[in-house]
Amino acid sequence: MNAPLYPHGVFGAGASLWIALAIGIAFGACLERAGFGSARKLVAQFYLTDLAVFKVMFTAIITAMTGVLLLSTAGLLDRSLLAVPPTFLLPQVVGGLLFGVGFVVGGYCPGTSCVGAVTGRGDALVLWLGMIVGVLIFGEAFAMLETFYNATDLGALTLPMLFHLPYPLIVVLVVMMALFGFRVAGWIERKHRAPSAIL
Amino acid sequence: MNTTAMQTSSLGKSVGAANLRVPGAYWSPYLAGFVLGLVLLAAFVLMGHGIGASGAVASIVTAGEHAVAPAHAEANGYFGAYLADSDGSPLHSWIVVEVAGILIGGLLSGLLAGTFRFTIERGPGTGVGPRLAGAFGGGILMGFASRLARGCTSGQALTGGALLSVGSWAFMIAIFVSGYLIAPLMRRRWT
pTM value? Predict the structure, then answer.
């Protein structure tokens, strides 16, 4: 296998859009099956009664991360061709802080609001309209924001580069952290979940 | 595909549930997360990049503004760059099609599992008006924040998290920090 396939020209732009559709369908189904079409299930993460958001996110992250490591170690996947999201530290920290407030106030994140909206949640649809307004405000204010938006540009910096540790070691550490986190999450849920609080 | 077979078989089990609120109506978070991780891995292997959601909102807003006020959109530093990028980079249209897939997959899964229902999700003591105001306000914040951070929980937290991007991990940690800080103020809205 000569992966990633698209950058190697194994298939063209037309086929890539069918792949986009298939991946999107599977993604949407996973979010729905996780229960993430429900705002109350999502925000329960922040009231410690149901930590499914944490569990799903970190299970997905360690699965994909381990898969990338295994495939690249086996010589099947060229990791250097994967598009690592570039780091712009300050705007990403400030963006994350604003995003967290929006998540708890709004009840969904962008992807889960899609699933909420198509499974009948009117609040998810309204949140989507809000996102359009938010993007519009950002774009119209971009002249003022541009300097900050491009501040603290650290390029495609990864945790192994930051800590000067081998890539596989960081993967093992993240997996161990996640597994420990899952144990703690179970313990927290047992403490906080009242018998009547099933969402 | 394997994932499809897994979904179908597990969906079959939950279809019988008359009440979607019973525990077990959803998949175990570890199963859902594992399959989601395989989907993300498939994107890496096939495309060389991850998945997204908020990028589609940006594409739609850019296209909308370009249709209504073309000169204004082209002169804008953000939308203009987005428009110029769309010609050369197929990633923007890829994410729009992928999000169309999310809508289809979410709908089909919701119909099959019986979780579809017309409702406004809110806490027991919260009225429809305040809840929709919160949804709209939260949406504005996340629309803005996802552009500032160059992605959301999909394009940054999941994708960049799995690829060990420092900025994506910082973004993800910041979400949980501010979420837990603001949650006590919103407690009466949700519980």
Answer: 0.91
